[in-house]
Amino acid sequence: MNILLIGSGGREHALAYAIAKSPLCTRLFTAPGNPGTAEYGENRPDLAVADHEAVKKFCETAGIGLVVVGPEAPLVAGLVDDLQAAGIRAFGPTKAAAQLEGSKGFTKDLCTERGIPTAAFARFTDQDAALAYLAQSGAPIVVKADGLAAGKGVVVAETLDQAENAVRSMLGEPGGEIVIEECLFGEEASFFALCDGTNAVPIGTAQDHKRVFDGDRGPNTGGMGAYSPATILTPALEREVMKTIIAPTLAGMRERGTPFTGILYAGLMLTADGPKLIEYNTRFGDPEAQVLMPRLASDLVPALLAACEGDVTGIALQFDAHRAALTVVMAAAGYPGAVMRGSTIRGIAEAGANNAVIVFQAGTRAENGRIVADGGRVLAVTATGDSMMEAQARAYAAVSRIDWPEGFCRRDIGRRAVAREVAGDGI
Predict the structure, then answer these.
(1) Are 240 and 275 in contact (CB under 8 A)?
(2) Residue 87 and residue 63 in contact, taking contact as beta carbons nearer than 8 Å
């Protein structure tokens, strides 16, 4: 069948890499795509993803049998609803179900309703009320913008001044809404489940690195690197997550009349009291997709189709249990703030010459035969290995082959996983 993939980031490059392998994929189109996705099919930069009528017309003209929506914004905007209404099969949640990512307040209320373990919280639209709550609660504390913020709408405030500044920034304009929640302590992990509206099957784990600088310092970002599997999520913990977090979420959404279909990505904090939900994403993560897809040992497309058709119970996506993957994000100087665009990147082919390395492109564009930076997070240099230590060494060796003076990366991606391996607790 012909497949249309929506998006232009590193996640979409990773999904294109996996989808193009499927015997079910006749032609792959990516809209708008990037220079990396062009390796696996045809980019359609002329197709305006926000124009749902245009997307529908393209699907009809190109004979698209499946649309895979990569990023969160088109999901929250209701692209899946409009495609389904036109009889076009689309993978991803509806607009109402995508509120699990589109509104942190919505998700928190669902947690309260269904008894899902999460941090204690309060919701605010009024700045004075929020500041009064902070004065009463103290720090450390977490302040979150309610809506989509590309992974950067969260401030983990270590002091009351930091928290108050975050509140003033987020509620400085009319119409703003925030969630203030207790600061959980433990280790973070990412858990992915494939959902059909009623049932869910686990499909992988990862750990990412949100802070911009080594040692988990600096502001939150969309993600500076990741690795998979997250061995800290033992089989027993995975079962607990499915029982106490994923299953009640699906039940609650179904009872609300907004069943969830697609990828449910639970960001977890593994606390002394057990796993707690930090937040949901309603799609494959970025950069988590870049470590999940290289470990995937089975065909992705039948799993996506099964979710669309309402029955994932027979699906068991197989990941290579003896293979680790680690990705290092290279970002433009200044990220997560203002960045300079247009700098030339050399050495991508050299970095990927090892067949255990893939350089997934995110914020790039082709210009006069060159690859140039065109965003904040620009590359995800991904390597696999028989151990996390081997994957880490290969990834950083590949990073060293990339000639991009205007870029930077963290130098400690995977440090916890490597430390666990050294202690004898690896994959």
Answers:
(1) yes
(2) no
Nearest alpha carbon to residue 165 among 185, 146, 184, 139: 139
State CA 229 to chain mean position distance.
15
Q: Which of 207, 346, 264, 227 shows the shortest CA–CA distance to 91?
A: 264
Cis before 35? omega within 30: no
Half-sphere exposure of 206 (CA within 13 A, CB side): 33
- The residues, ordered by sequence, that sit 6+ positions from 375 with a Cβ below 8 Å of its Cβ are 332, 339, 341, 362, 363, 364
Nearest in space to 151 (alpha carbons), one of 246, 224, 96 = 224
CA 333, 338, 344, 345 torsion-angle sign: positive
- Tell me the whole-structure pTM to 2 decimals: 0.94
Query: Phi, psi at residue 96, to the nearest 5°?
Result: -65, -40
| Both tokens assigned to 400 | 């060293």
Task: Express each pLDDT in 100-155 by its tens digit.
Answer: 999 999 999 999 999 999 999 999 999 999 999 999 999 999 999 988 765 557 88
How far apart (Å, rounded) are the C-alpha atoms in residues 363 and 327? 15
